[in-house]
Amino acid sequence: MPPSKGKPHDSLSYGIRETRARPVKMIPLIPKYATMHSVLSAWARCGQVNIKTPQHRGNRASLLAFDYTLGAHARKLSESVFKGAICADDIVDFHSHVPMYASFLTALQAFGWRDRLTGGAPGRDTIAMGIRRMGVVEAETLRKCPTCVREDQVRFGCGHWRLFHQWPAARRCAIHGDELVTHCARCKTPAVRGNEPSLADDPCLNCGCDEWAAEHRDSTTGHWPLMQLMYRALKGQAPELSALVRAHPLLRAPSSTWGDFGAGKADRSHLQHLFTAWHVESPAHLGSVLGMNWNWSADSSSAPSIATSPFMFQAAVLAAEPARQCAS
Known about the structure:
The chain has helices spanning 36-45, 54-57, 74-81, 88-94, 98-102, 107-119, 126-134, 146-156, 223-234, 241-247, 249-252, 268-278, 283-290, 295-299, 311-327, and strands at 11-12, 16-17, 25-26, 30-31, 181-184, 212-214. By secondary structure, the chain is mainly alpha-helical. It has a two-stranded antiparallel sheet with strand order 1-4. Strands 2-3 form a two-stranded antiparallel sheet. The protein has a two-stranded antiparallel sheet with strand order 5-6. α12 (268-278) crosses α15. The longest helix has 17 residues, at 311-327. The radius of gyration is 21 Å and the shape is globular. Mean pLDDT is 83; it is low at 4-9, 15-23, 262-266 and 300-306.
């Protein structure tokens, strides 16, 4: 069951700069696990950064047009945009989904990935490419928790978009248990990312209304355990996940066998429990709920780089285990 309301957020104070020769220059306080879009928007609203400056945006419409979900450009942001006020380590650890996905990798893989991101190493990020090939990292429509927004307004002066609200499978806030709101209550316009600064307490861009509503999508028994597991992984508090993935009978099966689940190719008891928890009838159905691209199962025989199951599928399988054990 969702927790009771009122648990406070962790926050990051990136400091206040002051000199005797000029007025105090405020740097906004940012909560942990705010999206980089939210961080940049707060800095832009405070006049700390011009998101349209060519040196920052390059050939994009604005600095907000880049994809920062998996820690890309962390070193450049730290040095060129934040001028060292936010270090590359904090960008990767507290404002990207990297810690959550890294929890499913071996310790060596996770260390190498993080080191590459924080060091600004050139070349392709093959781990991020593999994650995106298997599915979307964040939902197309922005989500927010009403309680989080109210607490942010008191503590930080504005509401922030949170990483753990943007997961495709997210229905409720992993902290407060509130249903996530996604669109204007009056005109039904959804909250979406754009090239202009936007924060979670902004009014609707279409009609100016400041009341928001939820999609009221079905929330199965599988959703809440998954959100708790993913949130724990995002905070780096799930070191056991990598070993559990490698040991689980369902996840040990080659991904090429997931298309038909023939006899002897997977542990059917694990599979049936998983489908029951998510109210689905097939792997493809579960994949759509989790925001995954199910083509990975068909492509794995010709693409060794995706021979393992998607991270979201791994998380869903592991999250279902405690309930399965209790039921048995």
